[in-house]
Design brief:
about 300 residues, alpha/beta, Rossmann fold, 2 domains, seven-stranded parallel sheet, 7 strands, globular
């Protein structure tokens, strides 16, 4: 196999993963990846303080895949060796897509699953056979555990991705319940955009002598964004929104509303006036949400 030249090679990344990185367009590792990849490969705990867009997902996925490839963690069925805990279903799907992309060139098949709410639990229960990496939201994970579809007694590596968001969304109790089911001896990776008091408390209880990776993204002035406010009476909001979209020939518009009911109402009104609109919110099914954020176009 011809292995592409890559700066990732200097970090100890295996040839098969170098090929996947190159095909995905990764040639120069970000600061987060430069620090996290060797730390995970050496089995260290990691505390990563980095905002979205710094490459942290690839930074932990690549060495985890390499560890599975090299160490061949063989466990009883429904006992997962790697658990990635995330706050939302959207992030669960996103992380699983990265795993599938990076694992595409590996000689051994890596079985991964995104487990989250908004969809029936039955297919996820059936699909838990032979899972190597489980990416899950706290609530759905506890549901799967209650149904005995998955067991955490042999988890070798735990990832808490966007730990600050999980705590902000009120998942502290669920996270504590999950942590109580894990073996004491394991590797832990915790990533957060901020280091609040609650995140600090969790790092002290979860991490053991972690490698601390902190990336600060400097303030960048965005000159392409203009902000304007319009004082409009409640009954005129809908007509004025339609006026702005049509007279200014807006192709893509993101409208925020105060509730899921309002989102459905605004989208319905726009459609009735010839503007293609879709509503998306937490009360919609997973299938509807994926297709709901459609492009707004004038008909």
């Amino acid at each position: 196999m011809s292995v592409p030249t890559s700066l990732f090679a200097a970090l100890g990344v295996a040839p098969e993963l170098l090929l996947a990185l190159t095909e995905a367009g990764y040639t120069v590792p970000t600061p987060v990846q430069t620090a996290v990849i060797p730390a995970v490969l050496f089995g260290k705990d990691v505390l990563g303080i980095a905002p979205t867009g710094t490459g942290k997902t690839v930074g932990y996925v690549v060495p985890i895949l390499q560890r599975i490839l090299e160490e061949r963690w063989l466990l009883p069925d429904r006992h997962v060796p790697v658990l990635v805990l995330v706050p939302t279903r959207e992030l669960a799907v996103q992380v699983e897509e990265v795993i599938r992309s990076m694992a595409a060139k590996l000689p051994d098949r890596i079985h991964t699953m995104a487990a989250h709410g908004g969809v029936s639990i039955n297919p996820q229960m059936i699909g838990m056979h032979g899972v190597n990496i489980l990416v899950a939201t706290p609530g759905r994970l506890l549901d799967l555990i209650e149904h005995k579809a998955v067991h955490l007694a042999h988890v070798r590596l735990l990832v808490l991705d966007e730990a600050d968001r999980m705590l902000d969304l009120g998942f502290k109790e669920e996270m504590d319940r999950v942590l109580a089911l894990l073996p004491r001896k394991r590797q832990n990776l915790l990533f957060s955009a901020t280091l609040s008091h609650t995140v600090n408390d969790m790092t002290r209880s979860v991490l053991h002598k972690p490698e601390v990776v902190q990336v600060e993204v400097g303030h960048q002035e965005v000159v392409l964004i203009q902000q304007r406010a319009f004082r409009v009476s409640p009954e005129r909001k809908g007509p004025y929104l339609r006026h702005l979209i049509t007279t200014r020939e807006m192709d893509q518009v993101l409208v925020f509303t105060s509730s899921s009911h309002s989102a459905d109402h605004v989208a319905d009104k726009l459609r009735k006036h010839g503007i293609d609109a879709r509503a998306t919110h937490g009360k919609k099914s997973d299938h509807a949400r994926k297709g709901g954020a459609g492009r707004l176009q004038n008909r």
